[in-house]
TrEMBL record:
InterPro entries assigned: Aminotrans_IV, Aminotrans_IV_CS, Aminotransferase-like, B_amino_transII, BCAT-like_C, BCAT-like_N, BCAT_family
Uppermost EC category: transferase
Lineage: Eukaryota, Metazoa, Chordata, Craniata, Vertebrata
Entry GO MF terms: transaminase activity
Protein name from the UniProt record: Branched-chain-amino-acid aminotransferase
């Protein structure tokens, strides 16, 4: 049976009210349809979906490494400046055919998203805060000069794609299905200009553990000679260049025996992100208050959905101060020396929550405290997993 969310009134079926349409969602989770002057000729509509099922479904392997095995189908939606959006299409997963001058390849005119669908203990499939991904995708599209689209229509197309490939969602608490919406310019010419054609597509892959490591904590390498993002740049958008540009530093980190880069910014060595993750400090701050802190969204920080969820969750607990504030290596170092640091951890969709065990910084290997059993990160991980798998009722999950 085909279920459909009625997004015309910007509504969703929530887990708690499976039969009710909601006119609005909780703060921060409203749908916005962005428009960009001259670039949007309406939007594609999920009602126009064309579905061509694969004639040769693959044998599903046991859950493998993150992002290596893809499901049977994909969603594609084409756009061009003359005719606007074409009908969305769900078809067998296949290679793309691109013009060699395509500006996604030459100038990185593209973006992507990442979200998960989880199989609950009740065997139902849940998306986690997908509206936040749609909002972020619309922001990235605007910044990339890619055409606007109706976020609710895309979400409904994604829901239909998941529904078709639902058997691929792992029966596991430690694995899920990762959804990778991607939006590329297919402009077939070498001028650096706004695209006249584009392709939005969505692929799905199984997601086991993101970090291919036995270690429970991450080792980081911090050197201010590399910068992930800068004010006025695109660090707050999910664009491929933000990630491709980090590879060189990532391998230098490996040469120091570290797994990821701790990205610093500015003269005062502000702590910004780690690898592809947002970063949190749990400490007794300079004023003697227990605090969970993460850098503010000032343009160089990716507005992570897990980041937002950690802030929302811990603010609701109301047990300690929760802040979005600047954090420097100097403050971290003092806190560590004075035994005020409780824990440092990274967060992201792919990796969920990942404690940091050590940081190589200015020739010193700083050892950070971490107690697996009673850490804040493990408590947050458990609460989020309970929501994602339907054990705790929440407005953050949407049934597929
Ligand atoms: C995610 O956590 O969704 C990410 O974007 C990481 C990705 C680059 C693998």
């Amino acid at each position: 049976m085909i279920k459909r969310f009625n997004f015309q009134v910007h509504s969703f079926i929530s887990q708690q009210h499976p039969r009710l349409w909601r006119i609005s969602c909780s703060e921060g989770e409203k749908l916005y349809t962005t428009t960009m002057a001259g670039s949007c000729t309406g939007s594609f509509k999920a009602a126009d979906l064309v579905i061509q099922l694969s004639s040769s479904p693959k044998i599903k392997p046991d859950v493998v490494d993150f992002g290596t095995v893809f499901t049977d189908h994909m969603l594609t939606v084409e756009w061009n400046a003359n005719e606007g959006w074409q009908a969305p299409l769900i078809r067998a997963f296949r290679n793309l055919s691109l013009h060699p001058a395509c500006s996604a390849l030459h100038y990185g005119v593209q973006l992507f998203e990442g979200l998960m669908v989880y199989r609950g203990d009740d065997n139902r499939l849940r998306l986690f805060r997908p509206i936040l991904n749609m909002n972020r995708m619309a922001n990235s599209a605007e910044r990339a000069c890619l055409p606007a689209f109706d976020q609710s229509e895309l979400l409904e197309c994604i829901r239909r794609l998941i529904d078709i490939d639902q058997d691929w969602v792992p029966h596991s608490d430690s694995a899920s299905l990762y959804i990778r919406p991607t939006f590329i310019s297919t402009e077939p010419s070498l001028g650096v200009k706004k695209p006249t054609s584009a392709l939005l597509y969505v692929i799905l892959c199984q997601a086991g553990s993101y970090f291919n490591t036995e270690m429970r904590v991450l080792s980081l390498w911090a050197d201010p000679k590399y910068t992930r993002a800068w004010k006025g740049g695109t660090g707050d958008c999910k664009m491929g260049g933000n990630y491709g540009g980090t590879l060189f530093a990532q391998y230098e980190a490996a040469s120091y025996g570290c797994q990821q880069v701790l990205w610093l910014y500015g003269e005062d060595h502000q702590i910004t992100e780690a690898g592809t993750m947002n970063i949190f400090l749990h400490w007794i701050n300079d004023d003697g208050d227990e605090e969970l802190a993460t850098p503010p969204l000032d343009g160089i920080i990716l507005p992570g959905i897990t980041r937002q969820s950690i802030l929302d969750l811990t603010k609701k607990w109301d047990e300690f101060k929760v802040s979005e504030r600047y954090l420097t290596m100097g403050q971290l170092y003092s806190a560590l020396k004075q035994q005020r640091l409780k824990e440092m951890f990274g967060s992201g969709t792919a990796c969920s929550i990942c404690p940091v065990g050590s940081i190589v910084y200015q020739g010193t290997n700083l050892q950070l405290p971490y107690q697996e059993k009673h850490s804040l990160s493990s408590r947050i991980t458990t609460e989020l997993a309970d929501i994602q798998h339907g054990r705790s009722p929440s407005d953050w999950t949407y049934l597929v």
